């Protein structure tokens, strides 16, 4: 089903992530059918949408968007009936996902894409029990799905290219920033990066090297202020001063050997060095270091003000 | 020298970090004396202050603040003469830092604190050649030092408590957010977290798992949007839904065993689990999950708008 004709979305699983998707699709003006086997699912879902709605209203609801367009379905089959896109957000349990995706697949029209919110399983291992696995893809959002734009899209070995492309196009249509991965990597991209940081943080707490509060302050008042405007690569492109990433790697490269984290660094080969430098040049897309510094400075000031106001309420 | 009587700061080393410190102290209304052995240091420093000044003006200069209060000194001794605080920001080379800190120590009045901007060396290993090592401490900033509030302060084995406390008080006086560490950990806190993420990113590029641009987009449009308002710990406190960090660890704990990064996870013992849960409760400081969700949502919306405006210029 072409993504432009979708008017109804089915959300299977209505916890924090599934409920966040429900709120997002409602705000985007869709009919939404939710299904979750938990006995208190309907009330929890209502509280989740309650919590999200002020933010979505502030961002601007699409024409026709209404909370009244949510139906909590009594069965899985009822939820997917007539849906043009299915988003599965069940708990992170491989056997459960394999069975649930097969169940969804069995009752959903064959031209409808079914996307899984899985945080890290590959679709290859999840689609094994489905009869029509070609329309199954990963569509991994970030919490909360109604605010954070990123969605990582990846197919499994049995997924069809049309399903991957349609999922990416559909997410873009509903305002998402999409990364389509051409290979399956456990944890995809953002969760691998986030997980490395999280594990180092847990090691530090376990070893008495930092408290929970120090770890959060180190990020919110430190590198975290740069990351919404420039990712880790462009950040270090600027750390190199006028010489950019090339100077940074040639000058600070040896610190990769320092015991600054428990994660071993890769060998900084000429190929890796050149790939990172070229990637930064591509991404800078003609902006000089001075342009990027000015952009970062404007953004960091505005981010600090925004956070200060949000904390004051 | 009590930090409240400091009116002149010496900045030794005037690259990206040293020059950023110069701009910060000028904007805070100090006389600043800079020294750097590079032949083109004065011109580079002028360009650095040029680049920083619009941001500092926008933030608000302190009374009396003026770029005219910068002197580029001809010698190290001239730079520290009369200075009430010394900030060293030389290249990251242990032997160089040991010698330079001993040289600064030899010409600086004995009651003046000398702080090193080192990104990861402990003061214990850097202070070995100094005659009065007790006033030497680490004062590690983040790029750019004139905008990012975080400074990590840590003494070495021969540092005196008064020097650590005076450095922390001085940085707070000049608007910084200070973490005082009671033990030396290579890379301190923020750089260990940032370095784990950076190394995972380099591995992904080296293995063709993600491009430089995908890595940056995964952060700027994903978890990076949350980190200025809630660090990694509070972020996952909210990922647990109404059950908070306790539910998150009990539910997602097993994913610590997933191959989501090359960094091995610590054992999630009951002690570690309880320490992280208690730390989040302390940090939440009475704010419910619903309060934190509302605060995060307001902040993420404002951060996205701020970044969008900064990019448009």
UniProtKB/TrEMBL annotation, chains A, B:
GO terms for molecular function: NAD+ binding; oxidoreductase activity, acting on the CH-OH group of donors, NAD or NADP as acceptor. InterPro entries: 3-OHacyl-CoA_DH_NAD-bd (IPR006176), 3HC_DH_C (IPR006108), 6-PGluconate_DH-like_C_sf (IPR008927), 6PGD_dom2 (IPR013328), NAD(P)-bd_dom_sf (IPR036291). It comes from the Bacteria. The keyword Oxidoreductase applies. Keywords: Oxidoreductase. It holds the Pfam family 3HCDH. Residues 187-256 form the 3-hydroxyacyl-CoA dehydrogenase C-terminal domain. Residues 8-183 form the 3-hydroxyacyl-CoA dehydrogenase NAD binding domain. One of its GO terms (biological process) is fatty acid metabolic process. Pathway: Lipid metabolism; butanoate metabolism. Belongs to the 3-hydroxyacyl-CoA dehydrogenase family. PANTHER family: 3-HYDROXYACYL-COA DEHYDROGENASE FAMILY PROTEIN (PTHR48075), 3-HYDROXYBUTYRYL-COA DEHYDROGENASE (PTHR48075:SF5). This is L-carnitine dehydrogenase. It comes from Amycolatopsis dendrobii.
